[in-house]
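step: validate -> pass
step: tokenize input -> pass
step: predict -> running
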Amino acid sequence: MAVSLNTGALVLYHGKFAAVTAINKEKIEIRVEGGASKSVRPKDVEFLHRGPVSSLPPKLLPEPDCAELLELMEGETLPFADFLLLAYSADTPEAAASAWELISRNIWFRGGPEAGVTGRSPEEVAAALAAREAKEGEKAAREALLERIRSGAVLPEDRVNLREIEQVALGNSPSSRLLRDLGIEATPEKAHHLLLRLGVWDFLTDPWPSRAGIELSEPDCALAPLPEEERVDLTAMTAYAIDDEGSDDPDDAVSFADGLVWVHVADPAASVTPESDADNEAAARGENLYLPEKVVHMLPPEATERFGLGLQPLSPALSFGIRIAPDGTAKLEKMVLSTVRVERLTYHSAGERWEEEPLRSLRQELERFRERRRADGALFIQLPEVKLRLVDGAVQITPCFVTPERELVANAMLAAGSAVAGWAAEREIPLPFVTQVPPEAEMGGGSIVEMFALRRACAPSAVQCSPGRHAGLALEPYVRVTSPLRRYADLLAHQQLRRILKNEEPLSAEWLEKRLVLSEAAALQRRRLERTVNEYWTLVYLTQHPEWTGRAIAVDRQDDRLTFLVPELAYEYKNRFGGKVNLGEELTVYPVAVDPAALTARMRIDLHPVAE
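step: predict -> pass
step: emit ->
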């Protein structure tokens, strides 16, 4: 250093003022502003003044007239000691500290204790002053924005600045400077609450798909044209595609002819060939995503328009002819690439034709299949289900009741899956077989409490390329083959079955397994998102209907926590209720605090009997 250090000298250490307290042979002891003491090397500090220093940081002197000071310097570079005398007419630690602060602003002067001090040019000064003014303006504007946020009085033009908070609420960013300055933890839930309080969002903004990282755009890849191939003409059969009202992806239909139950299934695998662009996109999505606000398909919309049964006068299909044996087992007798003519029905309109053919014969055949499953230990779990839709900003909740028409369609699809799986297993053809282990404990399934417990005891089903038993359905083996427009595993099965029908080399079990690992993970992610989003919109429904009153059934108890099921909404919630409630007891409930952003609802419970 150019200047010898002494005890009491004022120095700079890492940009902070410090005082030398002791000098040793190789190191010096310093006290840094804030009170910390350190042992450092002399080259680690920058000398400002010989001292002695009375306080840290030193008291700063009033700022001189910098423009006049520039004129006095006449463009010369002054030693630091001369500069502080010229600027402050004093040779004190306070003058040295003030001179350093003046230089460090980098507006009028540049340099330092060792390099000396030089005045900046008029152009540089003007630019630096303009930058300072702009920075101060930005600071003032930000403080004003923070105050508007705190008071809940944001302006329309603030929306662009609030995007960083929206990104946190959407799960796209882990941090926000605004939230930090407001003292709010940067979590999606707290950001969501703030946006709601400010009126920037309302409850119609659903952040959950973004938080799950799931794309809501439709696939944008071309489908190959329908190949020229021989198809069996089954247009003479009366075929019905029976779905919920408003369903727009009919991928299966039923017929009855010559003693066979026929299940016709849409044939997108004719165009979506293994590892094509559309197939890769479908594998990455796993299945359709059904949200109350929209449906996001795994295949391009063109696939539904082209292959959806009954959407065109004639439809290409993969048709299964199934014989229900006297003992109720389902055997595959025919499997053909076909052309079918399909009429679309709702469950209600199917009920109006219940005694007509082919529904009459289908009902009789499939009832025998159902009873066989019952005898084999099938689990018939019937818990409340609803369909949620968002229509013009209003949440609609419609109960889905178990009806004979729904039972007929469900059993036809199960019969097809059982028959195809048995046929493939006999020939050692790998398919995406579906298995499920039985519940560990034996339990009844009659009351809603027992069914709730039974559902909890059931393990998730698994998809694998070797056949096995599905305990819940009481089918061995079983494969899903009736929803190739909606589920990738079904599409994989169709790709394999088409190759068998056309005498092509089957897809290997190893290849199928790799595709299933990818697609089943994506499908599971979507199913979890659907449950979360349905819960979110159920709570939004309650905010839209604050006068709602309903019944809840106590279905489970764990310590002092009761689980209640609201059948009308198919909504479950937990409550530490202090009163005496028996499992299965029905209570009247009223929402008193509903928070969709936190996915919570607090209900008031009325112990009086529910009015009929």
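step: describe -> Residues 356 and 409 are 16 Å apart (CA to CA).
step: cleanup -> pass
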